[in-house]
Amino acid sequence: MFPVRIITTIAIIVITATIAITVITAITATIAITATTVTTAIIVIIVTVVSMITGRAMVDTDNQTETGVAPCTAIF
Q: Which residue ranges run through the membrane (predicted)?
């Protein structure tokens, strides 16, 4: 039989490690979500600015065929 002190120490280490892993996972997930949101926002801003400068939409949103542009496939 293990002494109670060793069992208690092992239990504390396991609990501490579990809490640490949970916290690290939560932080990592938050960072990933934030990075995705920021990246999406930057892309939207770039597309909007380029559309404003060029005077035409970078993405075909009206699903109509324009000159030389297939519907739903226009990127630039």
A: 6-24, 31-53
